[in-house]
Design goal:
The protein is mainly α. It has one domain. It has 10 helices and no strands. Helix 5 crosses helix 8. The longest helix is centred in the C-terminal third of the chain and has 35 residues.
């Protein structure tokens, strides 16, 4: 992995986006185990986009306005749904003993859906990965697969860092219900804003 690829990937992964917010919310609300589940889900949600870019399917998405719009608005609807459930149902950030917490499987599934329903990721990887494959590379497909695996590993490490950091702060935050309420509103508002941003995204 080249230094340029590592630094570019690190900047991309570190940028606060939907997956980061989702992982932080579960790290804060459910601790390290929930943060790990969110990390796994969000990381796996990258796989379809990488496969699309590697095998050229993202080009179809880029060319078809209807396909792009369909996936985009499915993602918008899901983000708005997350904003609503985070605000109204405090299960995501709940720390009381008598509340039913989301299972790690459901947390991972939601994280997977968050990333898979973002068509911008396919377009991003279509433009991103080929730049780091030398023109004279005898096996460009294998090289792109290796880069993709490295990008996923970096994503998992960074997201886990975010999530575990939030889990570490959890005990200091959960003892203050008003602080938890403000965090809940913050995450709900962020999900809503990310949904609006995606709604106005162009190809």
């Amino acid at each position: 992995m080249s230094t340029e690829f590592f630094l570019t990937s690190l900047i991309v992964v570190l940028m606060p986006g939907t997956g980061v917010i989702y992982t932080l919310s579960h790290g804060l609300g459910g601790g390290a185990r929930a943060a790990l589940a969110a990390t796994v889900g969000c990381t796996l949600g990258i796989v379809p986009h990488m496969a699309a870019s590697i095998f050229g399917l993202a080009a179809v998405l880029h060319a078809s306005a209807m396909a792009f719009q369909a996936i985009k608005f499915a993602g918008v609807a899901y983000l708005i749904y997350l904003a609503w459930t985070t605000l109204k149902d405090d299960g995501t950030l709940s720390v009381t003993e008598n509340r039913r917490h989301l299972s790690t499987r459901k947390i991972a599934l939601h994280g997977f859906l968050i990333n898979i329903l973002n068509p911008k990721l396919s377009i991003f990887f279509l433009a991103f990965l080929p730049q780091f494959v030398p023109a004279d590379n005898p096996a460009p497909l294998i090289h792109m697969m290796v880069l993709s695996a490295m990008f996923m590993a970096l994503t998992a490490v960074v997201f886990a860092g975010y999530g575990f950091g939030a889990a570490f702060m959890r005990d200091a935050v959960i003892s203050r219900p008003r602080v938890m309420a403000w965090f809940r509103r913050l995450f709900a508002g962020t999900f809503a804003l990310l949904g609006l941003r995606l709604a106005f995204a162009e190809r």
